[in-house]
Amino acid sequence: MKMKLGWLVVTVMVLNLSSPCSAWFGFGNKQKTSKNSILPAQPSIINRAAHGSSIIIPLYGNVYPVGFYNVTLNIGQPPRSYFLDVDTGSDLTWLQCDAPCSHCSETPHPLYKPSNDFVPCKDPLCASLQPSDDYECESPDQCDYQIDYADQYSTLGALVNDVYLLNFTNDVQLKVRMALGCGYDQTFSPSYHPLDGILGIGRGKTSLVSQLNGQGLVQNVVGHCLSSQGGGYVFFGNVYGSFRVSWTPMSSTDSKHYSAGPAELAFGGKKSRSGSLTVLFDTGSSYTYFNSKAYKALISWLKKELHKVPISVAADDQTLPICWRGKKPFQSIREVKRYFKPLALTFSNAGKVKTLFEIPLEGYLILSNMGNVCLGILNGSEVGLGDLNIIGDISMQDKVMVFDNEKHLIGWAPADCTRLPRSRAFGISSY
């Protein structure tokens, strides 16, 4: 969902309030070129990569002040490096594209030069990006799409196939041909930040994990580990065996997003009485968003908790809607642990053993540049999310998050996300 908010709509509306890019251009007159097989010809090498292997890619960035986490991917022939914002709330991976580009932003690298291997309009991948099943094709040989994100960011483009250079955890490197978007007309949001594009790892057909799984290279499992110190990693395939993971089923009523529920919200170990919540886990959102009822309950509880403590509202700090100052600037979140208590979501799991998703102070507070602490949980109804509840980057920090699309489960466990997995179950190749 790109927000740093966003969700898949129009042809895709994404949950996220950060920013990526798009554009509408005519590829219609270009002709396809014959393509060579990119995967290694030796079946043994392909099987080696597919059997029990995975991909682990380092993350860079943080919740504040950067506002997003990104990966570096090598795409094209020859492969070129691009910085992509990681988004579990949307499916399509796309790059700002010189096709030419009618509206593109500043990018860390030169604009992507698209291949001539276009995805046809009636291809199943193209169909998954359209607003309805009976969509029309302006050009049968070209798949046009538009993606609108919740942060007023949008991208218009065409779907192409190109080569991704990927390192697997068993020291196999493959050039894998997969679809990506060539975004040539973007509308930018106020939260825009300069990146080359978006890495979509949602549940849809165009998602990178779905395409990798479709080629038999990894299991249909994706996840991430975001460090509160900055950085972390994202992974494709089953790499979480050594963690004690807590599991809850994916929502049966939402097949597009990594959502779960119902869950009960607790403040400081006490039930909030804000009703049962369905939540979406979305790296496209820097912060967490509660619906109006849950948000008001949280603010009411915080006012009671902070009534007689030596901190006050810092109205002059505009970092986030609500900030507090102490008698002197705070140096770390640890200094306010005696004033703020942890939050938690309890998932009922259809009457079975309940699963707890804990949100410590670091999971809902940030330290601003002014030395104040600010609330990293926002009112979703004020940004057009209605009754949705989004668990953003801030609340997933220092946890390994696992989205198992084969078993339809979402899992998490405490983890040191500053260290890439290197055990036998987590072997990682050099980058």
TrEMBL record:
Domain of life according to the entry: Eukaryota
Active site: 87, 282
InterPro entries tied to this protein: Aspartic_peptidase_A1 (IPR001461), Aspartic_peptidase_AS (IPR001969), PEPTIDASE_A1 (IPR033121), Peptidase_aspartic_dom_sf (IPR021109), TAXi_C (IPR032799), TAXi_N (IPR032861)
Coiled-coil parts of chain: none
GO terms, molecular function: aspartic-type endopeptidase activity
Keywords: Aspartyl protease, Hydrolase, Protease, Repeat, Signal
Stretch forming the signal peptide: 1-23
Keyword Ubl conjugation: no
Example GO BP: proteolysis
All residue ranges annotated as the Peptidase A1 domain in the record: 69-413
Similarity-based family: Belongs to the peptidase A1 family.
Name of protein: Aspartic proteinase Asp1
Naturally occurring in which organism (per UniProt): Arachis hypogaea
